[in-house]
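P.,

For your records, the input lines for the assembly:
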Amino acid sequence: MSINIIGAGLAGLSAAITLAENGIKSNLISSMQSERAQSVMAEGGINACLNTMGENDTVENHIEDTIRGGVNLADKEAVRGLCENAPSIVKYFYDLGVVFQTNQNGIVQRSFGGQKKKRTAFVKSSTGKMLMTALIDAVRRYEAEGLIKRYPHHVLQQLYIQGNKCQGAAVTDIYTAESVTFSGSVILACGGLNGMFSGLTTGTTQNTADAAAICLESGVELANLEFIQYHPTTIEIPGKRLLISEAARGEGGRLFVSKNGKPWYFMEEKYPELKNLMPRDVVSAEIVEVTSMPECDNQVYLDMTGIDKKVWQSRLSDLREQVLHYLALDPVKKPIPVSPGIHYFMGGIWVDREHRTSVKSLYAAGECACQYHGANRLGGNSLLGAVYGGKTAAATAIKENHKPESAPNLSGVQPYSEASPVFRDSVSQVLGSHLKILRNENDLDLALEELDLLKAKTANPAEIRLLNLAGATVKCALFRKESRGAHRRTDYPDTNPDCQKQTIVQHSNVFYREIG
Amino acid sequence: MSEPYKQIIEFDALPDDTVATLLNKINAEAGLKDTQGNPVGFVHWQCSCLQKKCGACAMRINGAPALACDTKLCTCKHGKLSLEPLKKFPTVRDLIVDRSLMMDNLISIHNWLEQSAHHSKKASDLCYDASRCLQCGCCLEVCPNFLPGGDFYGAAAFVPASRILSQLERSYPRDLSGFYKKNVYGGCGKSLSCHNICPAGIDVEQKLSNANAVAVWKRFFRK
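Structure tokens returned:
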């Protein structure tokens, strides 16, 4: 029997290799080959308490920072598993050949947002690419042995769910338009919900959100969709937002705005302890606030001119090249204009600590799953969460060893359809206008009305699914009548302890569930 | 599969638009016709990251392989732009080609570590640079020695192989060395046409000489 993995980024590869190490076959299904996955774009690093920086870092510190950064909405026991396993995960990648920066004490760690100690292992600003290259090579060995079979131009078409159990999946070969069925357990590892915000995120066009939309249509529970991370330092480039890694501030970059004609380092003044390295939700909200003050300009700058030459050379050379290429500005010499952009989705497919979804024999891991990050993800925890989540989902699938009771067949499968780019842009316009860093009921109601208008214009099943997912996201944001982490309601500005729960959406029903 | 065909389109775009942006604009334009008055259908092409980190959008741009997300229209002479699929790979549709051959080749030369990586300070920069390979196929497109289905696998194989080879110890099993000699060393004519074409800017020549040093001359990296 094979287990079917949808998605070949870091979470999908981690699941596949865990299965292979246990002698279990998998079908690794993805729209493109692994080199095209969003994981290759992750920059700043991966968090783990290695305690190599003489700061007495502990796993408990990592757990505390993650829970606090997520504003008490992450499952502490799940986070414990994540943080306890982090050092061995970094060691695993070191053994696979990832050239983390090292010194005489071992792997060097840098400061990252929301963390009180240096805990982020890195390879310049290309950590995701380095982890992916190493893991792709490691997976290749099992491909040769026949334990991992790749389907590199296939996308999820339908999940077979009978009696609350997933029996398999139908996928479409986008090269031939032919459908294929796969029987057995399914692990979803298909990335974040970028497809609802076409052109407005730092991610890839391949994270279409289609799998989450299929889950919603199939009755699989989704959770915390309202928590959308706006990264504070992005720039607009053709067709998307470009991330300026948090490593820039981790290595000494400073944010300022011109106030009455003089630079105001607002983060340093307002947050004397963590300064520019407050969690991303806080920094982005502060940028919105200071740029709306009458005495301030409406543009924030990232000043990296004080960073030491050696640091530029050894740790940020790739970041400098990127800024030079896209902004035609040298960040060594001049501050660069930045603004918040959508970067990560804390919400997604609901999973428990073992990465089971609400449907038996269906698992989810990586950014498509809602786990570990609560109301706001810390930088450096996404690569970690993808690897640990993929491994855990695979381990659970092995343990549960579900056998399909019926073989999926193509007779009842809807023909494959996909949302047109123009339609995606329309959805993106609605959500981008109303589901911003600061939201309120009026805006969110307007979003629902505009989505309804779009619904009247299409009969394409993929577009209707996407609209339903967008609607569910807005409904989650309406349902949570408080401000917490990345969800900031101007009409409910305070955090409400009664809302320290997960928002669950199943079909069109939205409700709260206790965490864990 | 239908016969290859060309369409000529006149289209207003901005000098700072990339080829990727232009393709999106063309695909969003309803009722577009070519200069012969024939309708222009949806132009199929591949993209993912749109910031030259994934290699998906490689195609022939004005006759040379490049990434659509990394090529601005202002670099086109006389406002003319020609787009074609890469020629060394089977065309799937319009500008999409099937590049799975590169993945198959890396499996066939056993491009993986059998044991934990041997980390050497001297090889660290080399490993970093080699690990940046996008597997986009631009290097193979210009290589005079690479033929699809042939025995020579080109830079798309030797760049990743150089990473693995530089992390081997002398005592490690190394099937890769044998395959390397057969599928790289024996077939490379050293034209180095791959050197300046890499969209990631990898120092391809250095990777070749380092991989040769280990696989052929058994000069392993020490601490």
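Two observations worth noting. The mean pLDDT of chain B is 95. The beta strands of chain B are 58-61, 64-67, 83-84, 91-93, 96-97.

Regards
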